Every structure is written in C-alpha cells, then in structure tokens.
Amino acid sequence: MQTLSDLDSFSKKYLLDWEQKSTVRTGKRSRLDKAMISNIEFPYTIKQFLQYPEVKALTQAELQPFYLQSLCNILYGVTQFEVNFVTDQCGKLANTDLGIELSSSIKQVAIAIGTDEMYHAFAARELLSDIEELTGVMPVVPQKTKPELPKDTLVSSNEQAKARLTPVEYFKNAVPEKLQRIAETTLLCILENAVVDDLLEMAKDFDDANPVAVYNREHIHDEGRHKVFFQRLLKYIWGAISEEDRIALGKAIAGYYEQYFQLLSYDELVQITSKNLQKLTLSEDVIQSIAPQVAKSFAKQALHEKDFIQNPMRLMAFAGISDHPPTRELFLKIGLLAPSLETA
Description:
GO terms for molecular function: oxidoreductase activity. The chain is mainly alpha-helical. The protein is built from 15 helices and no strands.
C-alpha cells in the first residue's frame, strides 16, 4: 500500500532530483542540420516487417522518405499529446480537487512534470521546423473526426455514443461524478507509463549515431522519472478510495482496455498492414504476399500475450488493481490476463 506520507516523501525527493536532472533545467536541445538528415533511421516503425527479405533488402535511400515522414508524425504526436493531454491533466492535478488528499509536494511534482512536457513539445516543434526547412517534409495530421458506426449497425444509441468517445470522455462517463477527476488521473497514469514503454522499445533499435536516438534519449531522460511518479500516484489513489469506488473505477479501467485495446479481425489486420506496407517502395504483389502473413502471425497471440497489453498490466499489478478480485475477474474475462492467473 502506498500511503500519503510515502508519496509525499517520494515527491520531495523527486523535486530535489528535478532541479539536478530535468532536461529543461540542465540540458541543451539537439538540433538537426543537413548532414544529419541522411543518417536518420526509424526501424521501430517497420520492425514487424524486417523478417521479410523484400523489406530487409530496402536500402537506406529507399527508406529515407518513410523514416522522415514517420519521425515527423511521431514528433507531431508529441506536440499534441504532451500539451493537450499531459500538461492539462498535470495542471488539474495540481490545482483542482482530486477527491482524495494530496500534499503540496505531490502537487508541485505535477507542475514540474507539466513543465517538462511543455519543454518536450517545444523541442519536438523545433525539430519539426528543422526537418521542414531542410527537406520540406511535414507531418501528416490526422483528421479530427470521431468514428461513425455504419447506419445499419444494430446497436443502441448509448453504445453508438460510447464508440465515439475519446479516452478522456470515456473515463469521465464511465464513473460516478465524484470519481471523474480520479478517473482522468488514472488515464494520465496509464498513458504516461505507455509513453515510456514505447520510448524504451524504440531505443532498442537505435544506433548511437542516429539523430533520432539522440532525441529519444533526451525525451526518455525525463519520462523515466515521470513513469515512476505516476506508478506511485496510481497505487496511492487505488488504496485511498473506498471499496465501492474501487469497484466502479475497476469497471471503468476494464472497459477502457476492452474498448481501445481489443484485437482486430484478421481481415482488418490485413487491410491495416497493407496500408502500412504501401508507404514503402514495395510492389503490390509483395504487399499482398506479406500482409496476410503478418496478420496471421499477429492473430496467433492471445490478447494477454501482446506487448501493448503486458506493459499496462505491469502497471495494474504494481498499483494493486489486478489483485482486486472484482477487477481481476473483469481483466480475465476480457483476456487481459492469462487464465492461469485466475487461481493465483
């Protein structure tokens, strides 16, 4: 159990470390020049395809446009996520009532993390400007439209509305009003942990000479500390609320994973994989050969075996959420945990 005293002591140490280690306080931003552009590699984005000879045979020159576009898209995502979600939620954590007691040090850490995140967005925008100036490549900005269900889909109006919710909207609607701020903060803890997991996965594929590796290291330098704080914060929240509220929040968390993390059908996987492969310089015959193989391989794994589920489930275990019998039962029903854990 994480007590308020435990989290407060950790937060005080965090603030001391922040003064000495935070990139915005101590670091110098990396910039790109023309000579660096040709060295940019982003293998993380095609990692699942590299086992196929046709993809492995692609040259750096052939992959360069794809790498640049992928990097721009990632950087744009950072500028949006860090400002519109993380910094906003950190401000709320510091300045609005969460429904449970928080010390001044905990709230100050939220402001410190928000400061880091604004800096990360600043650095990402700066790199985007460098890339546009040097190459003309710009991010592909997703259309801000919510998914519409087919008109002939036989579902209730409530289910249709649920399908169109953003994750923040979903969490706020999935719990009683008194838990809405706690639900938003729970999502913040989940997504901030996911960011670090993604950055660590990317780091495995980077050569030190790759300019993308430098940016990734600078980003993860701060995000690693954020992750530990949010792990402890979620553990404290879970222990501080009533059993009735744990049941309600547990249902909301399980529903979030069920709605936003469920596996796609084989046909959907083939379609998405084909679309991703079309971004490379591959023939249509090669694409149609590889896509079904990738989809088949992905479909073989159960949901609980996927990295994108195992990582957040480690957070659920740390916070004590997956040990909560009613919530664990929901996790097992959805397939988020291995069936063998049911008797653990």
